[in-house]
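Chapter review. Work through the record for Sulfhydrogenase subunit delta before attempting the end-of-chapter questions.
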Amino acid sequence: MSEVSASNATAPPCKPRVAVHKFSSCDGCQLALLNAGEALLALAERVDLVHFAEAGPMDPEAEVDIAFVEGSVSTPEDRSRIVRVRSNSRFLVTLGACATAGGIQALRNFADGDGWLGAVYASPEFVSSLAQVSPIREHVHVDLELWGCPVSGRQVVSAVGSLLAGAPPAVPDERLCLECKRQQAVCVMVTRGAPCMGPVTRTGCGALCPRFERDCYGCYGPAEHSNTQALGRRFAGLGLVDEAVVRRFHFINSQAPAFLEAGQRARGHADD
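Structure tokens for Sulfhydrogenase subunit delta:
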């Protein structure tokens, strides 16, 4: 056996390379991944985390098998950087509400952003921002979207395992109401008339808010085939004025098409 072949026989197998990129966000999804604890340590044994600024490794231009992206596109620099991340990645996965549906910063899409900058900053011309905040899928192809505000470490670790195994990751899209039934949570809309978003929101959080007797505010985004029109009418029946209905849909996931359309419909009623 030659020296080269003997060396190859003992070389450790290459691990899949993974990066976690931050765009405009609060870092909450990265912190959720860090809080995965032992599951994150087990993941680190299976992959090379080549870029994850919150955890330490820094190599933002590295070519990787999986790139996780947290945050939305809100600056010109974001817009050019996401193209480079896509070109360096085999799979691109969005993490959480900001990357998937704009996040809280997308609320400025409904306001006078330039007016806000002028009111807050003495020299707003030095603040570089786009007129509209947008989710990642509006700029590059996205292979998988993980919803939540924030996501859970379990979601991320499960997605990595599925992608590396060549299997489609399981992404729940059923309504939160079903999870409430499984968790035996009392319906806050039926018993207290709370304007709960559960009937149109996908599960994934374990019905956390209803189990603590508060209404869902839709942080996991719209469920598949969600009937937002019927829920809007129900909110009106509960006494919410049109502007309050708008705010229920135009919140953390305002750029998700189903919620965006529902809010615009309610706003149309408010403007009549």
